Amino acid sequence: MNWRIGTVVDVQAETDRTASIVLSVPDWPGHRAGQHVDVRLTAEDGYQAQRSYSIASAPEDEGLVLTVERLDDGEVSSYLVGELRTGDELELRGPVGGYFVWDGSPAGPLMLIGGGSGIVPLRAMLRHRIAQGSAVPVRLLYSARAPGDLIYRDELVAAGREPGVDIRFTLTRERPDGWNGYDRRIDRELIADAVWAPADRPLVYVCGPTAFVEVAADALVSLGHEPGRIRTERFGPTGR
Amino acid sequence: MHISRGFHGRRRAEADPARIPPGQYLTSDFPVLSAGPTPRVALDDWTFSIRGELDEPRSWSWAELQALPREDITVDIHCVTKWSKLDTEWAGVSLDTLLEGVETAAEHVLAYCDGGYTTNLPLEDVSGGRAWLAYGYGGDPLDPEHGGPVRLLVPHLYFWKSAKWVRGIELRLDDEPGFWEGYGYHNYGDPWREQRYSGD
Hints:
The complex is a heterodimer of chains A (240) and B (200).
Chain A: E1 4-13, E2 18-24, E3 36-42, E4 48-54, E5 64-69, H1 77-80, E6 89-96, E7 110-115, H2 119-131, E8 138-144, H3 153-159, E9 165-171, H4 188-194, E10 203-209, H5 210-222, E11 230-235
Parallel strand pairs in A: 7-8, 7-10, 8-9, 10-11
Antiparallel strand pairs in A: 1-2, 1-6, 2-5, 3-4, 3-6
Helix pairs in contact in A: 4-5
Chain B: E1 25-26, E2 47-52, E3 58-61, H1 62-67, E4 71-78, E5 83-94, H2 95-99, E6 108-113, E7 118-122, E8 132-137, E9 140-141, E10 151-153, E11 166-172
Parallel strand pairs in B: 1-5, 2-11
Antiparallel strand pairs in B: 2-3, 4-5, 5-8, 6-7, 6-11, 8-9, 8-10
């Protein structure tokens, strides 16, 4: 798979720690919602570092968008969120991955469960669903610590007004006055409340930190959802 | 080579560059990557099988596997998502032990797992002291999220080849792509040749 050079068209701050990088990539072959790209940085002495990032844009969107969270010791993320600016070039290859994708399947309602920056590939799926004018019902359950940590907050709230789109948030640490969303870390009961019944046979996509995904996927299986209809993407350490 | 303006990188002094394949970075964590829920299987129901191109299929129960010679294995592992982890300590049984005495014309292996995951490897690569069934990690039983009770350990290839929750291998005359291999990942997956994706 070939490396390509994308040009940064825009960098948009999403939260204190995350930014969306809008790229123009000549001859981009297109992607499916949920796929990712590999990014490669090269220092002047030839030293290189590579990482993978989920694509935040829908296939229909103009420009390829990567939303990146700056990690405390993130060699690449701290460059992408902080140093990179409009006009810079970025080396990347992709799209990569073919399982954690949603192409508009009418095989069941679309259930998206995201924790933290795990929202990114799910946002691509949601945008794809809306851009297509699909009639497939979609529901998003998005967990973050505090209101300021919600990536794409305004966009998601607006999406929730579209027919067939149901957006739900849970804030685990800090909530604004009058908050009427969920108010705790996801658990079996919250999953049972937020997700369609197994009999409705939703296609479920779960993305987030490892512990978040383990809790969500275990809860889904224990509630009777078919393991084969639950697709997961995990990131981060397990602590051992 | 395309220089990234303003990028200096944080070279890690503690890493021996000779042990880090191209495009990889060192981590001390143990990230988890799985395509679906973590399967849970009772050890009483667990078996490992060798089927396909051999005179008679073979199968081991959990207790039978434990009775086989145990090896302690310290190896470096490399995940296609870019992290490498050095000196990981495993306990398990060599595939050579399980394949001992097997007469086969097969040149390929398809490993299959609880949860439906599969991965393909040349038979040669799971022979000759290069592959194990691992049931211990860091002195403890292998965690379910890391593939317990038993995962394949083939450290000379990218770690998606070290199938979690493995339940058997099929000896095959033809090469059948596994799960990720069917989604555009490299058929062989040598980290030192950076064979991440099809065509690399």
